[in-house]
Amino acid sequence: MRWLWALVAALLLVATSGCDDAAAPVDNDGSTESESCQDYVQGIEQATDSGSYTVSILDANPAPPDRGMNDLVLRVVDVDGAPVDSGVVLVVEPWMPAHGHGSTNVTAVPRGADGVYDANQVNLIMPGAWEFRMLITPDMVDAKEDSAVFTFCAEG
Ligand SMILES: [Cu+2]
């Protein structure tokens, strides 16, 4: 019966490799039950883990975010609702939790006032549920990175 175990092992290896395998409980839009896609609305907000900042999406093109290149206009305010200065670094990390991969991180460019940033060409390389991880590094020495996460589903 040794051949049987070898066959089972080979099948398991096939089933657990690759990005778009069928082993995980993935539904038609690529999301899993543990992920809930948010409905995009203009101005949607998310607080960071520490609660020190709130990130809002002022505009998205396309809207809602979809497969391919996405341009976002973001705004970051502090706990008092005051816009952060342009020394605060904001990076958008697209992340696909169902497959454990991202694409390319985008460093958002501050417009110089009002805590507004442009994050252009955020690339969703396949359909499914994508986290938009908003990574914030405050403008001070020894500052810890903070993050706020939105989850949208790319229809493709
Ligand atoms: Cu993927």
Describe the model.
The protein is mainly beta and 156 residues long. It has one domain: Immunoglobulin-like (Sandwich). The chain has a 5-stranded antiparallel β-sheet, with no helix packed on it. The longest helix is centred in the first third of the chain and has 15 residues. The chain binds copper (II) ion. The site of copper (II) ion has 6 residues, from loops.
Describe the structure concisely.
The protein is mainly beta.
- Assembly category: single chain
User: Which strand order spans the largest sheet, edge to edge or round the barrel?
Assistant: 1-2-3-8-7
The CATH homologous superfamily is termed: Periplasmic metal-binding protein Tp34-type
Uncertain runs? 13-18
Average pLDDT, to the nearest integer?
86
Task: Give every kind of bound small molecule, once each.
Answer: copper (II) ion
Separate helix tally: 1
N-end to C-end Cα span: 45 Å
CATH topology (fold) name: Immunoglobulin-like
Major β-sheet annotation? 5 strands, antiparallel
What would you say the CATH architecture is?
A: Sandwich
Global Rg: 19 Å
Overall helicity: under 10%
Shape: globular
Main structural class: mainly beta
Number of strands: 10
